[in-house]
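>> received
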Amino acid sequence: MTAHDAAGVPVAEFIDSLAAVSASEWDAVAATDYPFLRHAFLLGMEETACTTAATGWQPCHLLLRREGKLVALLPLYLKSHSYGEYVFDWSWADAWQRSGLNYYPKLVSAIPFTPATGPRLCVAAGEDSNALWDCALTAILRFAGTRGLSSWHLLFPEEDTSARLLAAGLPQRMTTQFHWFNEGYHSFDDFLGTFASRKRKNLRRERERVGQQGLRLQLLRGAEITPAHWQQFHRFYQLTYAKRSGHGGYLTRDFFLQTAPSLGDQTIMVVAEHAGRAVAAALYFRSDSTLFGRYWGCIEDFDCLHFEACYYQGIEYCIREGLQRFDPGAQGEHKIQRGFRPVQTFSNHWIADPQLAAAVADFTRRERPHIEAYRQEAATLLPFRQDS
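>> returned
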């Protein structure tokens, strides 16, 4: 769908597949090493049946063109549910239903199944970001009105983007995640040296326990991850999801065999072996500055192995590679005692119905001080020495 406008004003186009735009054109405007906005990643999710109308993630990406040239883009999906978003709005959906309205479908700008903060509206070099945000908002609200959609939700944008939309009248929600920051550490022991003595001993005991059970861990990057590793990982992922939630996970076998490998050296896998066979693995993605911990799976439980594969191996990698931040994913207060600091993440929400929009705005205002108080309280539980 394309919106026609006056000469010189960008034209909005909503595409139902990333195949409608070339990788070179998309990636040139995205111009980021944030792995989840790469054309290969988002199109790969479509082609491996992770993001389709059938799964409730119908691609509906927004392109802004001026005289045919792509000047901005925004990932966008038509959603028929709220799964895989990590910003929970089930209570809002219930309120809509009780009001006799349909909450679904709704529009969501997010990276599917990926609660990782990063760019959302990407603007070509030399273009006016503020002006293009105005164009994007106008196009999205017009599209939502034409389709009779309940709402539009921008999930995990960068803080300055969220603040801009808040100023434009889109209520802002905050959630708390736990991230690790590299303070110029030279080694894992250097990092542990910032811990209080008892906390440091506890963490060392956890790492020693992994070795005591006869486990061997190997970190692989890019082409070092073979098709056999990907097959294995998919099995671990499915079994772990089934045990935890009763279904086999959001991502298909082909995602792991085709899409994830297409990101090359931006993929890192930690494989744990016991008695000569792989028993667990953790999957990470990276940019030039940040490591993103994304998926974990196992076929056998071992003490402390999850902490080692998903956290400590990631911290060691960041120190060795000089990465500044490690985002291990959503939730998990157990990360605090392992040196992951509480940080705020953001989302913004446009609601079509005026009465319900006012209720959501009031809710976000009342929720905010509680979220901030939680972050401050969580920070008091960090394991670091008072002088560090």
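>> Residues 1-5 have pLDDT under 50 and may be disordered.
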